[in-house]
## 1
Amino acid sequence: MATAGAVIVSAGVGKRMNAAVSKQYIPVGGKPVVVHALEAFERTASVDAVALVVGAGDEAYGRELVETYGLRKVVAVVSGGAERQHSVLRGLEALLERRPETAWALVHDGARPLVTPDVVERCLAAAAETGASVPGVPVKDTIKIADANGLVAGTPERSSLWAVQTPQAFRVDLLLEAHRRAAADGFLGTDDAMLVERLGVRVKIAEGDYRNIKVTTPDDLELAERLLGKTENMGERER
């Protein structure tokens, strides 16, 4: 595959965490949450460069993390915007400014510390089919659609439902067009694939990982700590 780069979005505040620092900087497994995510991309052979997007005023701290943990692929640390969507576009533009030859872009939430190189590679392979892909896992629970009064309005067929994760992979020109079209239309999506879908592009689902959780609440942080511990123990046994 042609040159691939990644945008790691780490500009959120994380109000549900009720912590003194942003959720992506909370230590888990001995390192800030976002560092685990960044290190996964460091280990991914297909990824050549990374742009890290941080909150306004956190740029110096972001650069400090890059230096402290020897993150050689990070070519830019930039501040995000008011919405995640704005942050992604800023990161993408910074990535392309440093690496204009980049043909494929991955967008990943910095609050997902358990992403693996295997998931990243599967997303890139799936994106080669249609120009866009997302990692997903089949939904285990029955999902109900509720109306404004909290009454069940429908029950979709579970076999067709997927819980979507990041990183999401796209052809760079397609992702840029999707973001710029959304900005012109004043549209805010819940993920980048939603913006690409608005262009009529079919998005391929790649095999995700149930362990690739997003750290949003204190319970998530505890789970991430346990999962990271298990992953490290497995690695030691394999060695």
## 2
Amino acid sequence: MFTGIVEEKGLIEAIEQESTSLVLSIKAQLIMSDVKIGDSIAVNGVCLTVTDFTDNGFTVDVMPETFRATSLKQLEVGKHVNLERAMAANARFGGHFVSGHVDRVGYIKDMWEEANAKYMLISFETEDGRYFIDKGSVTVDGTSLTVFDRKEDAFMISLIPETQSATILGGKEVGDPVNLEFDLLAKYIERLITHDASGDDVTKEKLDQFGFLK
């Protein structure tokens, strides 16, 4: 489990690519202070497992399902990535609940600046629109952000100067892909109200029948 508060930008030092898998070697400093084999690290919002490490970097495997479902396959040596260690139970919890399991790859449709803010309009599939509400949460390349507006097929975010400098989002351009993870609580609520263990949907009529709407 993560928070969407990016700890540092890592550098891709090497990529070993098969047809539908990757081995990434990533240079990092801050997060290496307590890394162990088997630790989970979010790389551009994707939960990956540390398979090897040194004092200044670590290695992770990208399996076929992750390769197909995320933008990691478009990484190049020399590019930076957002990094976050799994959240600690004894620390402050900023951001929001982030699982590190990407729901969709979106694309930056537009970008503009106003005062000290950088705005981005990011596309999503129309059927995913139910996960976006004004002032709700979304994770973009592992960064916890607030939805400021939504269209039929896109949502808007605003990056403060700190987010622009501390994450890779500040260097993105129109047309770039980004990993999207929808609000985890929204997905759980949707599942609970549309399905139960017996396979029967929870409908408005059933809620009324058992007195929940009275």
